[in-house]
Every structure is written in C-alpha cells, then in structure tokens.
Amino acid sequence: MAGYLARRYVPGNALLAVAGRVEPDEFAAAANDAFWRWGGPTPPRTERPPPAFEGGVVVEHRAVSEAYFAVGLPALPYTHPDRYAVHILADAMGGGISSHLHRVLREERGLVYHVGAEYQAYRDAGLLVVEVVAAPEDVA
After folding, report:
1. Using one digit for the tens of pLDDT, what is the confidence trace for 6-46?
2. Which residues pair with 75 in a beta bridge?
3. How many CA atoms lie within 13 A of 77 on its CB side?
4. Which residues fall within 8 angstroms of residue 105, CB to CB, at 6 or more apart?
C-alpha cells in the first residue's frame, strides 16, 4: 500500500484549488509551507488499449416487492469529441420526468416505479446505463 501511494499520490497527480477572496502569492506560500515534504516525480502516463466490453447477465431471484433491472451498453470515453451527444441521448431517454422512457413506461403504461438513463464516461471507455425499478411481475 505504501508503494502504491508513493507512486500515485505525487504533486503532478494532484490539484489544489481555492475559492474566495485570497491573495494568490500568500496562498502559494501557505501551500508550499503545508506541502513542502510532498515530493517525488510524477510517473509517465502509459497508453493502454481501450478495455474490452464483456456482456453478461446476472439474475438473482428473491421474494421482493420491487425488482431492479439495468442494461449497460458500451459508450464513448470522456475525451471523445462526440461525448456530448451521448449525454443528450441519456437525458432524452431517461433523464427525469420529462424523458421519453419515463413518460411511456411510467405515465402511459404504469409499468415502472422508476426509470432512468445515465452516461458514465471514463478515460478509456464509457457506459450508457438504463435502469428500471418495477413490480417483479412487470419486469418481463
């Protein structure tokens, strides 16, 4: 654990932010005083191939009053220029009570208690998740 911390928790991997009425020079001096022992080189970033998406199904049967169902699909990483389109898609599909899925599945058909969609973007890949909470007999 100590080796991991020494390699990863270095000044080049940190961001120190301040908000409010501060004097930049005084803040820099205070930060230098507080972190003077914190040193070490920042390890170079190595390029890695994007992770492979591996689909699968997990089903757990339990006697419950609500069932949870989710579908995850591969999506763009957060560095991709078209990532904002995925944000818009997720919001349109399941981004609240005005979304298409909410209107159709909850308001029109009364099949779900909750439906939502979200886009999770990471450095190497992304994930578009649609999730539903419904009565167990309505999941199919």
Report:
1. 777 877 777 888 888 889 899 888 888 888 777 666 667 77
2. 126
3. 11
4. 111, 112, 115, 132
Q: What is the pTM of this model?
A: 0.63
Please report how many Cα atoms fall inside a 13 Å half-sphere around the Cα of residue 90, on the Cβ side: 23
In order, the DSSP letters of 40-90 are -PPPPPPP-PPPPP-----------S-EEEEEEEEE--TTSTTHHHHHHHH
Residue pLDDT, tens place only, 69-80 = 899 999 999 889
- Cα–Cα distance list, 66 to 69, 102, 110 (Å): 10, 17, 14
First-to-last C-alpha distance (Å) of the chain: 45
Question: What is the bridge-based pairing of β-strands 112-121 and 67-75?
Answer: unpaired
